[in-house]
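Budget justification note: compute hours in this period were largely spent on complex prediction jobs such as the one shown. Inputs:
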Amino acid sequence: MPIKDKGTEQLIKDTAKKIFFADGKLHATTQDIADAAGVNRTLVHYYFRSRKLLFEQVTEEAMNELRQMMSDAFTGKQPFKEKLKKLINVFMDQTIAYPYRELFLITETNRYNQEHADQVHDTHTKPFLAEIKEEMDKGNIQVMDPRHYMMNLFALMAYPLLSANLSKSFMKISDHEYHKLMKQRKQLIFDMIYPAK
Amino acid sequence: MPIKDKGTEQLIKDTAKKIFFADGKLHATTQDIADAAGVNRTLVHYYFRSRKLLFEQVTEEAMNELRQMMSDAFTGKQPFKEKLKKLINVFMDQTIAYPYRELFLITETNRYNQEHADQVHDTHTKPFLAEIKEEMDKGNIQVMDPRHYMMNLFALMAYPLLSANLSKSFMKISDHEYHKLMKQRKQLIFDMIYPAK
DNA sequence: TTAATGTTTGACAACTTTGTTAAACAAAGA
DNA sequence: TCTTTGTTTAACAAAGTTGTCAAACATTAA
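Corresponding output:
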């Protein structure tokens, strides 16, 4: 009995992620994905049954990665400052590799009148917000609604990479220069969001 | 001779903008647009010749709006602080009305291997960056690469509205509450980016 | 009223994209 | 070897999307 080959299935999924999350080609067809993966398009249907199911699986896994990142960064007993550093480090690395991941999630939920958009089931955000609140009470960070603090953090991390092409055009920055700027942002964001006293 | 009717043409364009920029439905077809506008799909071709030309026109106008906003906010002799307030006010209002406008521009340029993505021809960004630099020299705002400052500003304004559905899910915020948070952000962003001494 | 011009519609053609099927192929156990 | 099971392919079918056309309709000038 032949071993069920995980190779091709994984290849298709990884290629789809590359096209959606890294290249930002949200309008890619199953043919585009198959071509990029170097396989026959029928295999997409063989492994995933339909385009929609492939999309759902990719979406689901991207959501899990997001949750996992939150969980990894915010469990354990290190001080808030260290957790924050870790979060920025991991999320920025992910966003550099996959700048359009959130964009994909957003457009996919917008696509079908956000029926099942609400069931996210994340258990780590609440403790995160609570820790932010504590840190404000301690006087370590600027006082505001912790939800604003969280939005600011993710905005500063995600948006410049998301809008890279637009920003490069407007500010006339070369690819090389832009990359250099992005590398500086981990530290810069930390300093903005957790200022030295 | 009948007057060339600008009504229907404008209606189609406005509807397209509503679907793309406000609803974030980037995969909308010409049929979707025609239905939403309540007109026959053939009219889309009558007025715009092809789907691609409609898209290009919508893209072009969105880019012009962005440039216009920069120009409006950054010409004149008011102090930097006032210009900044004005920019935040106008851009936030635009982004609340059209949260997905930039997202549309980004995905459309990603779609066709960014051939003509570079020709933005914006003349207001450079003076803007220069004014930021001046303000840093005066000690009024935190010293960093002015381009980072600009990216931070736009990130803080655009991202929370862009990712509203995602944020609402993760933080379990209702539509009503989210709207309230967004209204607070004009002031909050100004305070972050131009802190009182 | 009639002619001219612009607008709107439905029917149809062309093309693209998705999904299905049967057959060929490959690997491994009996 | 032969059978079984899983994998890959090409051909085809179905659906969706875009684009064209001729005819109907509306408005205004002559």
